[in-house]
UniProtKB/TrEMBL annotation:
This is ATP-binding cassette domain-containing protein. It comes from Raineyella fluvialis. PANTHER family: ABC TRANSPORTER G FAMILY MEMBER 20 ISOFORM X1 (PTHR43038:SF3), ATP-BINDING CASSETTE, SUB-FAMILY H, MEMBER 1 (PTHR43038). InterPro entries: AAA+_ATPase, ABC_transporter-like_ATP-bd, ABC_transporter-like_CS, P-loop_NTPase. One of its GO terms (molecular function) is ATP binding.
């Protein structure tokens, strides 16, 4: 054993307003690179949406940020702490809610809350106070003794949020927290998230739902291990290429025809019209081509892109 402590490289002075800072993060699984040199920062108080198709590297990134997986390269600082050096220091200050809710189905509501209070070492007094908060927040008062398995998905989801925040974390990671939940429960859940954000909790959320993405203050979009777009939702939409909307009687036929057109990146049906991603294509020129192809009644106009259009454009353009 050396008598001298090995000197560590000096740590950068962290901006206290930054909750998460990721620099050139990389994670390989064998010869496969799941996270390919990403960099971004999340400011305290933000509702940060981390988006991307299945397999793009979101969960891998969250596992690294929460200290449960080691990175292959790069730096990660969470709440000013180097996660790789001191994972325990951040565990007390962060919360994590996965899409599987991490609840014990054969325990009651009360027992689940008490279990997570124990995991985080809450005192009796703190637990008594937090228990009241969770019961009110999750609308579970009177159901303390019910088996978790008997609760509806929406209630289980709110209980999972309560157990993930029982220790009052400063930063909460939510990995697809609303998958499999009906639209009403999803909206109620987002109300709870906004309430948490209003109390100063930084939220780091992954979701597949674009309406939820629009609730975030900032978004990063992952694709094949890289961040391909980053910014407030409004800026991302404003920076997107216009989408062409096509209306005609035979939408199925027109969709097939457009699918085969070389300059069309994406076409899909939404709300009774076709939305066509085809950067640089003039609406009138497309209407003429559709008419020549036998869709004489086609009306084409340029419309504002939605977030979904922007991301479809990013993915199909690669
Ligand atoms: N332990 C592992 N061993 C090998 N490959 C892995 C491992 N974990 C993840 N991967 C691969 O890394 C890629 C990224 O996975 P990850 O779960 O991070 O994606 P994701 O964006 O979270 O997707 P989803 O939305 O489906 O959860 C996938 O191709 C996945 O198969």
């Amino acid at each position: 054993m050396s008598l001298f402590r090995r000197s560590r490289p000096p740590q950068p002075v962290e901006d206290p307003a930054v909750a998460v800072r990721v620099d050139d993060l990389r994670r390989d699984f064998g010869s496969f690179t799941a996270v390919d040199g990403i960099s971004f920062a999340v400011r305290r108080g933000e509702v940060f949406g981390f988006l991307g198709p299945n397999g793009s590297g979101k969960t891998t990134t969250i596992r690294i940020l929460t200290g449960s997986l080691a990175p292959s390269g790069g730096q990660v600082r969470v709440l000013g702490t180097d996660v790789a050096r001191d994972p325990d220091a951040i565990h007390r200050r962060i919360g994590y809610m996965s899409q599987r809710f991490s609840l014990f189905e054969d325990l009651t509501v009360e027992e689940n809350m008490r279990f997570y209070a124990g995991v985080h070492g809450l005192s009796k007094e703190t637990y008594a106070r937090r228990r009241e908060y969770v019961l009110d927040m999750a609308d579970l008062r009177g159901r303390e003794g019910e088996l978790t398995a008997d609760l509806s998905v929406g209630w289980r989801q709110r209980l999972a949020l309560g157990t993930a925040t029982i220790h009052e974390p400063e930063l909460l990671f939510l990995d697809e927290p609303t998958s499999g939940v009906d639209p009403v429960a999803r909206r109620q859940f987002w109300d709870l998230l906004h309430d948490l954000a209003g109390r100063g909790v930084t939220l780091f959320v992954t979701t597949h739902y674009m309406d939820e993405a629009a609730n975030c203050t900032r978004l990063a979009f992952m694709y094949r291990g890289r961040i391909v777009a980053d910014g407030p939702p409004r800026d991302l939409v404003a920076g997107g290429t216009d989408v062409l909307e096509v209306r005609c009687a035979d939408l199925d036929g027109a969709e097939d025809w457009l699918d085969d057109a070389a300059d069309v990146r994406d076409v899909h049906l939404a709300e009774g019209a076709l939305r066509v991603t085809s950067p640089g294509t003039d609406p009138q020129a497309l209407a003429d081509r559709l008419r020549d192809a036998g869709y004489g009644d086609a009306v084409v106009r340029a419309v504002e892109p939605t977030l979904e259009d922007v991301f479809v454009g990013l993915v199909t353009g690669r």
